[in-house]
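Course assignment 3, question 2. Fill in each field.
Student: A.L.
Task: Predict the tertiary structure for the chain below.
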Amino acid sequence: MFSLDSDLRSNSSNSNVTIGPEGESDDNPIRLQGDTADEFRALLWALYSLYVSPDSLSCRTTTSSPGIVSRPNELSVALTPKANPLQLFNLARISHKYEFRSIEAWALNALTLAYTRPMHPPNTKDGEGPSLEQLTELASLCEQRDLLEAATQRWKRRLASGKDISLAINVAERLSLRALLGRAYYVMLLQGREVWDTDGHLTRSQIIRLLSGHYSLGKLWDRLPHEPPALVHSPRCMGATLVRCNQAWSGLWKSMMDIGKQGLLLQYPDVEGKLMLAEGMLKTLMDRDTPTPGMLEAMPWCRDQALIATAGKVKEIQESLADYFVDVI
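Answer field:
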């Protein structure tokens, strides 16, 4: 860009006006492909804000990132609830493209802080901040794990309310976001076939994966009553007590799964919902003040371990949801 021949001239096809090389005049500016005016404006804002004049050296300064000294009245506001998420997004994107590494790191840190701040997280309206899709793409592009996790949690809250399900599927597939992909497919699965067919944003391959997930999760639920998760026994549980404990745990697990089958509000492939129901039932039994006759009494030293094993199974299913939505059953 900066090695243009100063003698280079190009004639306009519509006139005899001679136009010089890019950047020589306002009529023929240097064209930065793929950048928006707002992104370039954000970069200039950061570069000028980084300059500390001799008159400002007596002012209190803060170091926000290695190699960056900022004036409190300029960049430091970006680390407060008054931060402008869209400006930080534009800055992070363009500084990543042109490899302004220290500025990129600072902008991503400020943006992550804005979206993970416990109090006063950004709740921007349309046009006031980056879309969730844009935020996710930036976090993935820059490999910013904390920002990506914050974006994923926002996706999951949307999915829980039934919003943007097919959009989440497409974003997760494009960016290879396994955790979001499994959750989005699972939520869409529970919407039912009528919703899939009328969505308009799902491809034929995605519908096939939903059908595959329905089949695979249904088969998993059929197996679960006979496959209790491994129980890590208490050191006090040994000998004949250990044998009775294992038998009681198998019986308790099967009974909890059978109750899950009878849940009228739970769909057949809703394995996660049924396991969470079982976990809640087990907690209720263990929290009772009075002794509870039955299988729990046969495992006096391992009740807590039974709850841990159940919670572990729930987590295992949640983390492996993406594995059930494949192209081939």
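Instructor remarks: The chain has three domains: 1-31, 37-220, 225-324. The CA atoms of residues 285 and 292 lie 7 Å apart.
Grade: pending
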